[in-house]
Write a structure and sequence with these properties.
The protein is an alpha+beta fold and about 210 residues long. It has helices at about 15-25, 30-40, 50-55, 60-70, 90-95, 125-150, 195-210; strands at about 10-15, 75-80, 105-110, 115-120, 160, 170-175, 180-185. α1 packs across α7 (about 195-210) and α3 (about 50-55) crosses α4. The mean pLDDT is about 90.
């Protein structure tokens, strides 16, 4: 295989794009299964062929091919030193992570019942109503998924209110963690392409499993 493949001994972790891909849909595929294997460990593991085969359930050749695919799609990255998932109760960890998700420092995480788990930057009353709205949008999207996904080919379930220039004023991003569906509500422009988003999905992956 190409030298582009991560070398053994590298500490492997999902990129922000990998964390987004892992949590964007409840549908499982080989790439998503490997990403979730990584997102349920307290520390980034060192890459070995034996571990790679265990994560993928494939033989050596197909396991390496899948790793190559994950890299070419920038879904995984390697570190020289191990990375550790933020520890502690969710009510303490999430408020530290959530502000970085938004250009305005406003974000909250809601469950599928419409209750917010943690919030940053929003007043309590607004957070409650936004969490309820996120559940309604989830139901709405599910009802119209055949049109959006099958007929129109839109394979995202995020919703946003945009200004005249198309910039998000507030967005609702579903996160599917195991059997749980959460909504990440972001005020202003989303900032999901950074390590803190990986940490958010990582924390939830360890807490709720898959």
């Amino acid at each position: 295989m190409s030298d582009f493949i991560l070398h053994e001994g590298t500490f492997i972790s999902p990129t922000p794009a990998g964390a987004y891909y892992a949590s964007a849909s409840p549908t499982q595929d080989p790439a998503r299964r490997v990403l979730w294997q990584l997102l349920q460990l307290d520390n980034t593991p060192s890459l070995t062929l034996a571990k790679l085969q265990a994560w993928t359930g494939e033989d050596e050749q197909h396991a390496q091919q899948l790793l190559y695919h994950l890299q070419t799609e920038t879904l995984v990255q390697g570190f020289e030193q191990p990375q550790t998932c933020p520890g502690g109760p969710l009510e303490e960890v999430l408020p530290q992570i959530l502000p970085a998700m938004s250009g305005d420092g406003k974000a909250l995480l809601a469950d599928d019942q419409g209750f917010y788990v943690a919030s940053a930057g929003f007043r309590h009353e607004a957070a409650e109503e936004l969490a309820a709205l996120s559940a309604s949008l989830g139901t709405l999207h599910k009802r119209h998924k055949p049109l959006l996904s099958n007929n129109l080919g839109y394979h995202t379930s995020a919703w946003t209110l945009a200004d005249a220039a198309g910039n998000s004023q507030i967005g609702f991003w579903p996160l599917f963690i195991g059997d749980q569906r959460f909504s990440l509500v972001v005020g202003g422009l989303p900032r999901l392409n950074q390590h803190t988003f990986t940490q958010l999905v990582w924390v939830l992956g360890i807490r709720y499993g898959c």
